[in-house]
Design goal:
4 copies of one chain form a homotetramer. Chain A is mainly alpha-helical and about 260 residues long. Chain A contains 12 helices and 5 strands. Chain A has a 3-stranded antiparallel β-sheet with strand order 2-3-4. The longest helix of chain A has 24 residues. Chains in contact: A-B, A-C, A-D, B-C, B-D, C-D. β5 of chain A pairs parallel with β1 of chain C.
Amino acid sequence: MTNSTDVADWWRTEIIDMEPGRIHLRGRPVQDLIGHTGFAQMIWLMVMGTEITGDRTALFEAALVSAVDHGPQAPSIAAARMAATCGVGLQSAMATGLNMLGDVHGGAGEQAIALYHLAHDAGPDGLQATLDAWRAQHGRFIPGFGHRFHKPVDPRAPRLLGLVDDAARAGAVSGAFAQIGRAIETQLTAERKKPVPMNIDGATAVIYAELGCPAPLARGFFGLSRSVGLLAHAWEQMGQGGRNKGPTPPQYRWTYDGP
Amino acid sequence: MTNSTDVADWWRTEIIDMEPGRIHLRGRPVQDLIGHTGFAQMIWLMVMGTEITGDRTALFEAALVSAVDHGPQAPSIAAARMAATCGVGLQSAMATGLNMLGDVHGGAGEQAIALYHLAHDAGPDGLQATLDAWRAQHGRFIPGFGHRFHKPVDPRAPRLLGLVDDAARAGAVSGAFAQIGRAIETQLTAERKKPVPMNIDGATAVIYAELGCPAPLARGFFGLSRSVGLLAHAWEQMGQGGRNKGPTPPQYRWTYDGP
Amino acid sequence: MTNSTDVADWWRTEIIDMEPGRIHLRGRPVQDLIGHTGFAQMIWLMVMGTEITGDRTALFEAALVSAVDHGPQAPSIAAARMAATCGVGLQSAMATGLNMLGDVHGGAGEQAIALYHLAHDAGPDGLQATLDAWRAQHGRFIPGFGHRFHKPVDPRAPRLLGLVDDAARAGAVSGAFAQIGRAIETQLTAERKKPVPMNIDGATAVIYAELGCPAPLARGFFGLSRSVGLLAHAWEQMGQGGRNKGPTPPQYRWTYDGP
Amino acid sequence: MTNSTDVADWWRTEIIDMEPGRIHLRGRPVQDLIGHTGFAQMIWLMVMGTEITGDRTALFEAALVSAVDHGPQAPSIAAARMAATCGVGLQSAMATGLNMLGDVHGGAGEQAIALYHLAHDAGPDGLQATLDAWRAQHGRFIPGFGHRFHKPVDPRAPRLLGLVDDAARAGAVSGAFAQIGRAIETQLTAERKKPVPMNIDGATAVIYAELGCPAPLARGFFGLSRSVGLLAHAWEQMGQGGRNKGPTPPQYRWTYDGP
């Protein structure tokens, strides 16, 4: 009924092939990748299975660079710093911060790409209908636009869009999703009669959509990017010391509002 | 007794400074970093607080590239793939894999750097005494050398060492730690009368030591590097499907050896 | 604009009230709970905010006891055992296993309760329509029934149902959800012309529904229950030793099926 | 070279034996445990492999009950509440909180048991020497005594000690470790000329030592206990709503103290 092949077949992968003394990643000998492939290119190769080059690499690096940190008030960063004071290893502190990410924290990029694709399929004349349908299904919130903190504008978004424009002019990407993102921004601003600018999730979603990433990978790439901030903050906190550091100074505690 | 300053002071950081519409990372406006700084350079800037350039960047990228994956039998990778079949988000699956890393899995690099520093301080004539002292304190195992799988040699290690040699010739690093690493390899091989080659932990430790990283950061950088493999494998597994995928095929179960 | 009250108000809870030398949990001094309240009763008090007593406590304990372990092939248990060989603390190994739980692994209980409530509202004559509507929305799979491994029957399910019957006869619960569960079992078995018995998720869901728990808490209570097995297995594995223990023996590795 | 037995042997356990339709936990059919074994007794059976009964069960339950919660300023509880606002599942939020526990947060109990055993072996006349030796090796901090918040006394500790006294009078435990704990308290108070009362870690460590638990299990049992609070708080927070809830109100942010 069973044989050893069953076991070897239990885990299957196109990513890595290995024998003693031999490691191939996506079909390439690891020693050929080392020294010839940048870290961002390696991320792309491992996750997407293809090579990324030139202006497209630059766009991908820009997206990864842009989301590394949003300070100790971001739940992910706060968790990593707290963990660093609880007597766990540096990698565990990083994992605790990474585990904060989900539908709400770090999830808007995936949703924005999904929305962009709907808008793309509907064409310019269908934008209003696309937004209406999105709201009917998902609620009032349009992912990737508006920011509760960075008013009037998140400095990262226009910079990222500018890079997409450059890459489109160079023919490296189509620019179609930058156009869609801007059209949504214009539409929302008109509707609410105040600026509703694209935020970091909306802008990185433009890049990932331009590069042809499936929507869920926006979360994965955000996770890789934010892990950099998690490491930086966990490491800094370890240097500062502190034991069992809670969210607020001890004298504040919390409000008991029970019976 | 308390005032609002206490709260603002509770979390302190040199990494990020932020106001609405303004994000400075390590003193640099984020929009100036985006598009001008590679992802590996950004990692260095965020964690170390300084800029890395030229051949030193290339070395750092090589170390990051080399440790991304060791296949579905590595506990980290296996955990991320399993998690991907349990109905959690992509980032949670990554976090589960990252949380596997500790003193044993992904911890040897930190120990190797610590050993290299001891060997560096002792000088060439003190190497045997350094190894003896290490074993007296930590046990028989010399971190960073030998591999239970890659025999005779891990293909990543000589490639990484070669890049250090290149960088040393170019004056980008001293080369002192590559020399120490090789001296340990020679010593261990002579002792055991069979090859005890430097492994990936020993080789990346050489690079991190050459670049001046504190030893614990070897774990942090390994965590960032391995997270790439975690994302790639979790994503691939999601595409393959599977529900509640355990470590071995169901028919094998396990051995009960209780009374 | 801000004052210290804002900070104290940031975290609000009905669960715990605390001053130096005083800890009240759900309005009760902790020293009065200690020694008078069993651990299962304490779980109920903390999570539900009410007291549980007598036959209802026994039912709750039965549900908690029943789900502690399903062996090293369960992804949660496997992850905890692997983590125990990677050089992390006992609590981190538990957390790694707990983090495996999600929509698929440990999530069926929540779905089963939701289904039971729909069936309850529809009444006996509406059962078929309820199942049809469920499948139309969620797919073919009816949560809480059938088991890929325990054929013909999961020994835990009938035992748990029997305890619900006892409690219903004693007037501690209504028994309505046990009836619904059995009606679904009968229906599915008739449809498929082979036994489709209630499984552990379906049976614990009956208990939680009888006790009046909101559906999502089936996941929370499953998490508490399974954590017992996670601790037992992580601790046993630490005693067995092992370093970087992967899912299968090293000689099996995995199948590379890339180009 | 390999055969299917190798695979079945890869995972070995004394905890669980399973065939289709049969689950034995620690050698007992699960259906016999359900309904006859309390949840705390089940924890003991699974982890320790033996049965716990009567007054010893009551002591164990008291220890488990005492540590469930210390409010939203405890890093574990704070992390679970934050996670609950980030769009992850209830079990992931619990895991994030559990992953906070380590050498510092939830680790003192293990250290206290180790100290008690040293003091036990040294006898009453050796107490001062034991404390001196502990400090020489571990630093000034004596685990299990003193509290930065609960002054003059943690209400849980004397209550737990009183229960140990009752159990000792009933012959269920020896009382030796309660005596040692109190002797350390007396000694520390005399040294510092102010009260240094036993805290929750010291008191639960007395119970675990009386019950014969290995020191590291103090962490494991603390993890199980605190998981109750993690579930309660994560669930409450989900009910309160909130998105991406950071540690402090947004207007406070943090202090940038870089160059």
